[in-house]
Amino acid sequence: MIKERSCAIGLDVGGTKIAAGLVARENGAVLARRITPTLPQRGGHEVLDDAVALAHELLVEASSLGCSVAGIGVGVCELVDPHGHITSAHTVAWRGLPVRETFAQLAPTVVESDARAPALAEARYGAGQPYRLFTYVTVGTGISYCLMQEGRPYAGAQGNALILASSPLTTTCTQCGTVLKPVLEEFASGPALVARYNQATGAHLLGAEALLAAAASGDVMASEIARSGGEALGVSVGWLVNVLDPEAVIVGGGLGSANGPYWDAFVASARAHIWSDTNRDLPIVHAALGPDAGMIGAAATVFQDES
For the chain, which domains are there? Predict the structure, then answer.
């Protein structure tokens, strides 16, 4: 008798798309996948129906692939408390909906924040495997972090230990007295870089990938905006290292996975803002699992719950 392969279904529910995959427990391989636009403006119930439909499709396919599905992991781009309750509705209106209970009609379900799910994936299968204690930073449409300890994400008392760049960094200019309230996410995230470039040049770039390509081709303004964004991110990540004292910083997300002036300026700035010389040379590396990290990490929440 052939033993069935242990798997879980992982869903990465973002503002643009829902990515779902059948993930193997032993190595994190994605054995089957589905994707659909989120279209969150339709409302939470409609998005939930689509997400459940993807999970059902994969549950059916798992049987044909000889996979035993241990459960469903759902990573969502909202705040999630330690009990799996969604506590915000900035993008996907699932706050107050029976999300876990609805998925649980198919299989046991774990709901997690999409900031912690990819960190778990990197700890279990990716660049975080060598480390007992590391900080995962994701940089893309938004900027968040997760502290990983002994293979488990630290969620905090309310599940909010992931907010890094959404609040103003209020300061007063010592020369003129002007009160400045910059928000890092509005300066250094992918959409922020593009908005700054388009405003400065009158261009109509549509994404950070296009801006980085322009920088690579010699566009001075694109290079400067990328550099300044990376430098600003480095200030906050340097502070994060000072506070958390991790063994390494692993950086994911679309913008965080790219090389070039943004990355170079970020790493240099982070090291310049790390106070202790015993921390200053810690590894600062790209995540290993790419765009599948959220999906794989969502599935890994099921495996973590088993162990």
Answer: 5-126+291-306 (3.30.420.40), 133-287 (3.30.420.40)
